């Protein structure tokens, strides 16, 4: 038996990719490893007669599975119970079609993992290569997957392959009217009330040169389409990055959105067992309270794996330096010539320390112009790789200042 599956909490891109994959694997069974998003569930109920039937994991004889086809997922942590098939002896043959190369930890015999805004776009290329022409109904579903995952081709993760795939779907007869009807939803009165509460609870955290916004929500009952409300806030408030932490029934759900490269929503939510795209991701966890989950999220983005800029993006590449044999007077003249207030001091290519204008002016005030500049250097400053998060650089600088270190170490960081 051949199984076609996707990630837990499936969306339109998941279903579209599964349906397209079934054309490549005739007779294969479709199975969702977990729940589906509320909007997708309603769509599947409305179009039950025209969509390929999906079976439940509970109704499967996993021992009879000979091949597992993973679409829109290359991360075993998002396969739910089906991840056990990857460890079976003898091994199950695996094929992978996905658009998250950075998160891929599943390798298949057939491995089509391509950088794209939607996995459905990858599947379009596969269908074209196989000479398969889907009917207009499936072309519409595939276009739904592309448009949902790329924000109607506007998310920063959108790639040329997505534009080409959308064009191909239209050539296959995709119905844009249906796409617009399904994805353009009006908010209900209840949703508007929740949206108001979410906006009122917005808070911000400045980290690494960017501002990340958070909001929280709690309900004793499950509330569908929270991702829609997050999208509304994200666009209405014109935010760089937004995370919603919601406690519904007995679980905490975190939904992230980002429009800046320095905040990778998927990487942030990996720490909570979630995933997705740099611009849109989600996670679901059982156990913590709403306040605990909010605190853990803030710790993740500010301390554990800080988001924002890196040292590479703010450091000076063209800087003036001085040799260890130079005098205080030499340093003074060099600073005036290049209008700088600090000079790294090197000896035989190695950094000895940093001398500042304040120290040079102090030495000249005490009439020590011929003193070697190295006499003003207390110790070599800490060196950090260019990829160090800016927030870590900031914390190091603050700790050095609190520790009472002399200028060179703290200023160099």
Gist of the model:
With 413 residues, the chain is α/β, with parallel strands linked by helices. The chain has 15 helices and 15 strands. The protein has a six-stranded parallel β-sheet. It has a six-stranded mixed β-sheet with strand order 7-8-9-10-12-11, with helices on both faces. A three-stranded mixed β-sheet has the order 13-14-15.
Question: Which terms summarize this structure?
Answer:
alpha/beta, 3 domains, six-stranded mixed β-sheet, 413 residues, Diaminopimelate Epimerase, Chain A, domain 1, 38% helix, disordered C terminus, inorganic pyrophosphatase (n-terminal core), CBS-domain, six-stranded parallel β-sheet, 15 helices
Which strands sit side by side, in order, in the main sheet? Answer: 3-2-1-4-5-6
Q: Low-confidence spans: pLDDT under 50, at least 5 residues?
A: 404-413
Mean pLDDT: 88
Helix content: 25-40%
CATH topology of the largest domain: inorganic pyrophosphatase (n-terminal core)
Mind summarizing the main beta sheet?
6 strands, parallel
Strand content: 15-25%
Number-wise, the strands total 15
Count of domains: 3
Tally of individual helices: 15
Secondary structure category:
alpha/beta
- According to CATH, the homologous superfamily of the largest domain is inorganic pyrophosphatase (n-terminal core)
- Helix and strand sequence: EHEHEEEEHHHHHEEHEEHEEHHEHEEHHH
Q: Regarding CATH, which class of the largest domain?
A: Alpha Beta
Distance between the termini: 59 Å
What sort of overall outline do the alpha carbons produce when their principal axes are compared? elongated
Name of the CATH architecture of the largest domain: Alpha-Beta Complex
> How large, in whole angstroms, is the Cα Rg?
28 Å
């Amino acid at each position: 038996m051949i199984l076609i599956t996707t990630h837990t909490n499936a969306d339109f891109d998941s279903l579209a990719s599964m349906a397209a994959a079934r054309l490549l694997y005739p007779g294969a069974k479709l199975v969702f490893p977990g729940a589906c998003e509320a909007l997708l569930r309603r769509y599947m109920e409305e179009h039950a007669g025209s969509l390929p039937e999906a079976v439940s994991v509970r109704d499967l004889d996993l021992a009879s599975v000979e091949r597992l086809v993973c679409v829109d997922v290359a991360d075993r942590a998002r396969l739910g119970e089906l991840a056990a098939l990857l460890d079976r002896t003898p091994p199950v043959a695996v094929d992978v079609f996905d658009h998250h190369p950075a998160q891929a930890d599943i390798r298949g015999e057939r491995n089509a993992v391509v950088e794209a805004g939607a996995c459905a776009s990858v599947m379009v290329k596969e269908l074209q290569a196989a000479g398969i022409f889907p009917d207009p109904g499936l072309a519409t579903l595939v276009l739904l997957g592309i448009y949902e995952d790329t924000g109607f081709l506007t998310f920063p993760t959108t790639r040329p392959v997505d534009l080409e795939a959308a064009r191909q779907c239209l050539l296959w007869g995709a119905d844009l009217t249906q796409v617009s009807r399904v994805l353009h939803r009006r908010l209900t009165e209840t949703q508007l009330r929740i949206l108001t509460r979410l906006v009122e609870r917005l808070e911000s955290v400045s980290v690494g040169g960017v501002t990340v916004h958070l909001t929280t929500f709690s309900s004793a009952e499950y509330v569908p389409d929270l991702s829609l409300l997050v999208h509304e806030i994200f666009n209405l408030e014109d935010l760089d990055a937004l995370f919603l932490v919601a406690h519904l029934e007995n679980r905490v759900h975190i939904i992230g959105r980002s429009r800046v490269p320095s905040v990778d929503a998927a990487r942030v939510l990996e720490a909570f067992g979630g995933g997705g795209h740099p611009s849109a991701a989600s996670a679901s966890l059982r156990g913590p309270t709403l306040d605990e989950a909010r605190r853990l999220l803030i710790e993740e983005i500010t301390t554990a794996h800080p988001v924002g800029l890196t040292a590479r993006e703010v450091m000076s590449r063209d800087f003036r330096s001085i040799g260890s044999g130079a005098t205080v007077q030499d340093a003074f003249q060099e600073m005036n010539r290049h209008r700088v207030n600090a000079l790294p001091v090197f000896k035989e290519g190695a950094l000895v320390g940093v001398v500042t204008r304040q120290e040079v002016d102090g030495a000249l005030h005490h009439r020590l112009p011929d003193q070697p500049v190295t006499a003003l250097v207390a110790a070599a400053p800490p060196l950090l790789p260019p990829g160090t998060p800016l927030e870590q650089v900031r914390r190091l600088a603050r700790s050095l200042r609190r520790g009472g270190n002399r200028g060179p170490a703290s200023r160099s960081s």
